[in-house]
Protein 1
Amino acid sequence: MRVSHYGYHQINQTRGKPMNKVLLGCLLSTALALPAFAALNAGDAAPAFKAKASMAGKAFDYSLTDSLKKGPVVVYFYPSAYTQGCNIQAHTFAENVEKFTAAGASIIGVSLDSIERLNDFSADPQYCAGKIAVASDATGAIAKSYNLNVGAARDGAKDSRGQDIGHGFAERTTFIVTPDGKVAATVGGVSPTENVEKALEHVQHLQHAGH
């Protein structure tokens, strides 16, 4: 099944599903028509950021700089909490968090969701399951600093719970950032599950290389 950067199925693959899901897929497919940005690549400096984040339903102040003092950080941008591809990706990260930890890496998800939505998402046992932190980039400024496309909010877009999404959408791209503040690898253009698998491969490679 083909999945876009934004993680939603094409309209002809939603036959028989509720109309709000069809509408969401259609609207976010339109977002893919935005001009393509060149995401940061290996060797580029990763912009430091601070943001309100949530872990296991509790909000806290996140700092990339502080996290990098402890080892590599997987910074994964995703379109929206409680949408199909992002649900899969969060679940897969949560299922593999011990492997990332064993490789010395931490994980932070970043989206344009409000901190209130992320408090729900971070605690949801089906998705983040209290195992991974997710940060609120409400204005899209963090995503843009990583040269990612940010699509505008779409009227009528609903999440997988049937609730209004009400925010814009960053493209699904993951950056592996090393303690020196550099991007070691960029993962994009693959399915949500492959995104996690490739991110894990990169951090394990860093571990074996002695970073």
Protein 2
Amino acid sequence: MTEKLKIYWIERRDQIEALCSPTRQDIADRLGAVGPCTVAVLAAALGYRPTALYQHLIALKRVGLVQALPRAAARGRPATQYRLSASLIRWARAPRKAENRQPMTRVAKGLAARAVKDYAAGFNAPHWAIEGPGRNHWVFRLVTRLSRQRLSRINALLNEVARLAYTPDPKPGPLVSIACLMSPIPEKAASGRVGRGARAPAKRSRRSPA
């Protein structure tokens, strides 16, 4: 039976502002993936110097997203471990408040930039795979028109992806970066676009290569 994860829903603007930094997003993502760890372990996993992470950890701790856990070391000073304040941190509800929408846009920008960096680095990963059930490298974007039934089905599948990604795997493999953005497009902004299932204009248009 899968253990139910404790979810913390981010709705405070100061917490969103703290996560506008791609580095802090990296810290939160990695702590969520590997659990409590020291700054040295976290820095090695992210490719940073430990001294470069302290201020980011303090900022995340200040807004209540990260907790410090002092632990006795075998020798010398106690080694402090850091962990997320909850098993799962989600911000899907944050845009309900109008004041959160601008910082959430900055969060999405940082997330997208980090996803591009991860995608580029993926080509050099020893476990790189672009085909078959073990595929772990993929890029996809589509502007389309969806019925309520199809949108509902897509959301159900996205929820399943999130559940599988966030639930601890009893047999974990190599790290994989997963990013997802979905947005409604105002019709005015979509002028000139023809989504799948939409009626094409009478004028012949050119199809972009896949």
